[in-house]
Amino acid sequence: MNKQIRIKRSYKQILYGKKEEIFKLLCPVREKEWLQGWDYKMIYSESGFAEKGCIFETNNDFGSYQWVMTKYDNSDYCIQFVKFIQGKMIVIIDIELKDGDQDIVYCDIHYTFTAIDDSIIDEMHTENSQEVFNRHMKLWEGSINYFIKTGEMMIQ
């Protein structure tokens, strides 16, 4: 097996609020409230929000992506998404919230990118370099913290 077809990235966000409230924001529906540019189409959800088995789709300049929420544990505050980039890549996203001091929550985020088309391996490594990944995670961290503090979306 070619190890270059898979890369892993991790990041620890520091969020300011209550774990229970932050966890509720990790949802395709609620994300639209706090992350500029986020949009989705719900394909399936019994509750209409994040839950195990929830399926949704996102679109951007690079294409259409299908997402499946494969884990949703609101007692241990961890979730997992699998994102399908048709014919190119599968991305597994694991997120776990852990208590810190006072109103600090640590959000451990782990992405596993796997190319299913050898022709995109170089592109996958470039677009998901540690630097690019960290920049994305810092934006997400700032956006959610701003929303928790103000109740409004951070506009850039």
Q: Would you give an account of this structure?
A:
There is one protein chain. The protein is 27% helix and 40% strand. It has 4 helices and 7 strands. It has helices spanning 19-25, 28-34, 121-127, 130-150; strands at residues 6-16, 41-44, 55-60, 63-73, 78-85, 89-99, 104-115. A 7-stranded antiparallel sheet has the order 1-7-6-5-4-3-2. Strand 4 and strand 5 form a beta hairpin. The longest helix has 21 residues, at 130-150. The termini are far apart. The mean pLDDT is 95.
Proportion in β-strands:
35-45%
Q: What is the number of helical segments per DSSP (H or I, 4+ residues)?
A: 4
The radius of gyration is 16 Å
| Low-pLDDT ranges | none
Q: What structural category characterises the helix and strand content?
A: alpha+beta
Task: Write the element-wise H/E pattern from the N-terminal end onward.
Answer: EHHEEEEEEHH
Q: Please identify the oligomeric state.
A: single chain
Find the count of extended strands (DSSP E, 2+ residues): 7
Brief summary:
This protein is α+β, with helices and mostly antiparallel strands and 156 residues long.
Pick out its properties.
40% strand; 4 helices; 156 residues; alpha+beta; 7-stranded antiparallel beta sheet; 27% helix
Question: Mind sketching the topology for me?
Answer:
Layout: E1 6-16, H1 19-25, H2 28-34, E2 41-44, E3 55-60, E4 63-73, E5 78-85, E6 89-99, E7 104-115, H3 121-127, H4 130-150
Antiparallel strand pairs: 1-7, 2-3, 3-4, 4-5, 5-6, 6-7
